[in-house]
Design a protein that fits this description.
The chain is mostly helical. It has nine helices and four strands; from the N terminus they run H-E-E-E-H-H-H-H-H-H-H-H-E. Helix content is about 75%, strand content about 5%. The strands form two sheets. Strands 1-2 form a two-stranded antiparallel sheet. Helix 3 runs antiparallel to helix 8.
Length: about 180
């Protein structure tokens, strides 16, 4: 329990117990913004290794697109996480992977599922293809810019959602 509390999954109070930490929409937005920059860094570092070797990424994108067609947003998210993780792993930087992974709870929330339902999920899934093409050419700068743009679509949506909720006088908390 202490380890889960230390990584931010749980909150813990002596003699009161432990509970799943609530994540505010603002925290999700902040985490996505940080993660976008980490993805950008990872793409720049991974491009050399991934040049001409994007088979796993292509297979993962096929799974993301298939999930989008079925509107299976749980599978979409799982494959999307794998896609981004493969790029971060290819960067071969343990600190980058550790920091990137530490944001997993904050960015895997119900509000992201709502976002997927509000956009064309197939179009969103296909954004990954341009990222792969850049990585396959060894163009880490372009791949990083595309990854950041991809994340910023979600951040823009969430900022609008947060403003809408604040107008109603609500603090958006995601469990």
């Amino acid at each position: 329990i202490r380890e889960l509390a230390a990584i931010g999954v749980l909150e813990f109070a002596p003699r009161r117990g432990a509970w799943v930490r609530e994540v505010s929409l603002e925290e999700v937005i902040e985490s996505l913004a940080v993660r976008a920059e980490l993805d950008r860094l990872a793409a720049r570092r991974a491009a050399v290794k991934l040049r001409g070797r994007c088979g796993k990424l292509r297979a993962t994108v096929r799974r993301i697109v298939a999930a989008a067609r079925k509107r299976d947003f749980v599978a979409f998210q799982e494959h999307n996480q794998m896609f981004h993780r493969l790029i971060v792993e290819a960067a071969e930087n343990r600190a980058l992977l550790r920091v990137w992974g530490s944001l997993a709870l904050d960015v895997r929330t119900r509000v992201i599922m709502d976002f997927l339902a509000s956009v064309d999920p197939i179009k969103l899934a296909r954004e990954h293809e341009a990222i792969i093409e850049a990585l396959d050419r060894g163009d880490g700068k372009k791949a990083g810019a595309l990854l950041a743009s991809h994340a910023n679509h979600l951040v823009s949506y969430l900022r609008k959602e947060m403003a809408r909720q604040e107008k109603r006088g609500k603090r958006v908390v995601i469990r």
